[in-house]
From TrEMBL:
Keyword Isomerase tagged: no
Alphabetical list of InterPro entries matching this protein: GHMP_kinase_C_sf, Mev_decarb, Mev_diP_decarb, MVD-like_N, Mvd1_C, Ribosomal_Su5_D2-typ_SF, Ribsml_uS5_D2-typ_fold_subgr
Keyword field: ATP-binding, Lipid biosynthesis, Lipid metabolism, Lyase, Nucleotide-binding
UniProt-listed Pfam families: MDD_C (PF18376), MVD-like_N (PF22700)
GO biological process: isopentenyl diphosphate biosynthetic process, mevalonate pathway
EC top class named in words: lyase
The Mvd1 C-terminal domain, residue ranges: 180-305
Keyword Nucleotide-binding: yes
UniProt organism field: Enteractinococcus helveticum
GO MF assignments: ATP binding; diphosphomevalonate decarboxylase activity
The protein, known as: diphosphomevalonate decarboxylase
């Protein structure tokens, strides 16, 4: 019996950066994202009598990734024990394939833990709702909570394991154009960067306060189907996240000179009447949002800066039929 799940990365328009609880992965503020329709992770989980194992993209994963997988499987086994299932003591063989670049700021941990949550829950015999799968995926990587959700998701920060989960929200029609300026793994992980920001950035409290407000504004702009406002909020919030991160000691800087050139190019597009807005996660790659009909024109304008991909809103994490 094997369980196979497929999940896509998501890109946040309102960013998650900072934890109120490191162990439970409760964020300091809520966030909002679009799930992509490409760069999927497909994960197979098979229960076994031997030790846990984790293979990523055809090779045995390194000790760190394997350790994070085992810690996550322990959570699933705990849920199985609570449900009185015999599977609770079983180990698991996990095989995962990423179609996108791993750990380069294209949210591979989000699709990875979302796929693992769905496949492992099924393999261990748990029957979980989407909300409970989102809570489970969150324990692997915070942003993974949002990859459970079709199209657009809001992750409610919550104050406990029960209240911190993502759910769907309707948003204006849009496409995303990613510009991968550098596909190499990033220097400081989001996990470590968040701790450094909390410990040393003097702007951390301001960032938390503004993110609460920004999420409210984003939810209102989505309800009003106001693409322009959604775009403006997205670009401003990305700059604010990179500002709070840059104020750490020693400084962390995720954006490269070429990333700023892409931001400038997006501003130039707007001056030319091509409405687009840019954001970037914890790496140098830039993601542009635009109206679906403008995606080809936007992609053409940034093709010189790196590898370009165009995305539509995609599906939440789901089981793949093995019958
Ligand atoms: C910049 O979800 O990867 O992409 O919870 O520590 O695993 P952990 O962090 P992670 O952080 C994502 C940070 C971000 C912004 C976002 O996706 O909201």
């Amino acid at each position: 019996m094997v369980s196979i799940a497929r999940a896509h990365p998501n890109i946040a328009l309102v960013k998650y950066w900072g934890k109120a609880d490191d162990e439970l992965i409760i964020p300091v503020a809520g966030s909002m994202s679009m799930t992509l329709d490409k760069f999927a992770t497909t994960t197979t989980v098979e229960l076994t009598a031997s030790a846990d194992s984790f293979e990523l993209n055809g090779s045995r994963a390194d000790a760190k990734a394997t350790g994070r997988t085992t810690v996550f499987l322990d959570l699933v086994r705990r849920l199985a024990a609570d449900a009185g299932l015999e599977t609770a003591t079983a180990s698991a063989k996990v095989t995962s394939v990423n179609e996108g670049p791993t750990a380069a700021g294209m949210a591979s941990s989000a699709s990875g833990f979302a796929a693992l949550a769905v496949a492992a829950a099924d393999a261990y015999g748990l029957k979980l709702s989407t909300k409970d799968l989102s809570r489970l995926a969150r324990r692997g990587s915070g942003s993974a909570s949002r990859s459970l959700i079709d199209r657009f998701a809001v992750w409610h920060a919550g104050t406990s394991d029960e209240t911190s989960f993502a759910e769907a929200l309707a948003a204006p029609e849009m496409a995303m154009v990613s510009v991968t300026v550098n596909a190499k793994a990033k220097k400081v992980s989001s996990r470590d960067g968040m701790v450094a920001t909390r410990e040393t950035s003097p702007y951390y409290q301001a960032w938390i306060d503004v993110t609460h407000k920004t999420l409210d504004e984003m939810i209102a702009a989505c309800a009003a189907d106001d693409f322009t406002r959604v775009g403006e909020i997205t670009e401003t919030h990305a700059h604010r996240m990179h500002a709070v991160i840059q104020a750490t000691e020693p400084p962390i800087r995720y954006l490269a000179p070429v990333s700023w050139q892409v931001f400038d190019e997006v501003a130039a597009m707007r001056e030319d009447g091509l409405e687009a807005y840019a954001t970037a996660d914890a790496g140098p790659n830039v993601v542009i949002i635009c109206r679906p009909d403008d995606a080809a024109a936007v992609a053409a304008r940034v093709a010189a800066y790196g590898a370009v991909e165009t995305f539509a809103p995609g599906p939440g994490a789901h089981l793949v039929d093995t019958a």
